[in-house]
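Why do we bother with holo predictions? Because pocket geometry can differ from the apo form. Keep that in mind while you read this record for uridine-diphosphate-N-acetylglucosamine.
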Amino acid sequence: MDSILVTGNGPLNGVVPIAGAKNACLTLMPATLLSDEPLTLTNAPRLSDIRTMTLLLQSLGAEVSALASGKVLAMSSHGLTSTRADYDIVRKMRASILVLGPLLAREGHAEVSLPGGCAIGARPVDLHLKAMEALGAEMDLRDGYVHAKAPAGGLRGGVVAFPIVSVGATENALMAATLAKGTTVLKNAAREPEIVDLARCLRRMGAQIEGEGTSTIIIEGVDRLGGATHAVVTDRIELGTYMLAPAICGGEVTCLGGRIELLEAFCERLDAAGVSVEETPEGLKVSRKNGRVSAVDVTTEPFPGFPTDLQAQMMALLCTAEGVSVLEEKIFENRFMHAPELIRMGARIDVHGGTAKVTGVARLRGAPVMATDLRASVSLILAGLAAEGETLVNRVYHLDRGYENVEQKLSALGARIERIKGQ
Ligand SMILES: CC(=O)N[C@H]1[C@@H](OP(=O)(O)OP(=O)(O)OC[C@H]2O[C@@H](n3ccc(=O)[nH]c3=O)[C@H](O)[C@@H]2O)O[C@H](CO)[C@@H](O)[C@@H]1O
Ligand SMILES: C=C(OP(=O)(O)O)C(=O)O
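The structure, written out:
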């Protein structure tokens, strides 16, 4: 397994391009299953998760070609051959559950392996299943698979009232409802930019959708969807991650394509910590010129709140802040796995349940550390960039799920970072 070696090397300066969003692309790709006409995505990120979704769609009979070095995905589902999403692929990536709604809507049935939990929490799929039931589907859990069956005339519009906000369940319900008969109302829907991006793409394909970006989405089902070409929205989590690089190391970095509206709560916390963020026509210019940042409290929430996917990286910043910061993780029950690793680097962190108290230290020190999940991996790299000496981040395969060319992008800013190939 590969490792990443990082050596603290002072301030970072320059320009970094931000890719299309992993989490948008992973829901836009299954949308191809809703139509027999081609769907082309531009601005796709080059990530292992995208390759996993490609394999999953291909296993269902969809054609998926990566063009322009992977930045363009040309897809067509005119000849689907299977409705079974197999354990061998689904186990690699939770977002595989997003084929459920489209398959059910188009083919009338689907069998999808349960994705199971992962390092950050149990992550059940009950809300996805309840949403499909609200559209008339019969759901059965057998042999580790979700067996879903639409009524004889196909899915019917219905009211889906989510008890808690779920990004994935909103996406599955939204896609399924586009081909259901009649009107569907999604209440307490997720409002993330990735949901807005999905709704825009579906509308291009001919879907009738109103209200995306608010907590009530109304979908009027249509008989069929057509083809479309759609550019994937900017990855706000990759954006936030690179914004933290000059915040932690000092210097000035422009994140190309970044917009404050994608990350308002995060930008507000950076401002409170003493990091400057300026929106320019090219993107977001971020700098930390004087001394240490100040401690700030952070609570993760669904959009438009502070994203859970930036909590680990923000913790890395706050490890060297002046004062005591309190981070509350409200989305996932086990998302502080990076804390013990940061402690190995000299951070002072006390974790109690979903709360972490971080007492800033003047300087972190390099150490061998273990990456436990995607955002934990990159938080350790950020911490290593600001630490004295060498940090060896082991087991970085999660990193490649969500960050393309991370070593090249950080090296271009002046970081000392290299990948050590494993066996
Ligand atoms: C591929 C993708 O887009 N992943 C993102 C998506 O994950 P994902 O869509 O899996 O996250 P959800 O928004 O569904 O999860 C929110 C909370 O709801 C719970 N829950 C969810 C579904 C369900 O059926 N039952 C249930 O209890 C989860 O365990 C979690 O506690 O949103 C998360 C929250 O912003 C992000 O961290 C992930 O990066
Ligand atoms: C948790 C994440 O992804 P996934 O939902 O794909 O596991 C993430 O992107 O931080």
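The CA atoms of residues 107 and 227 lie 18 Å apart.
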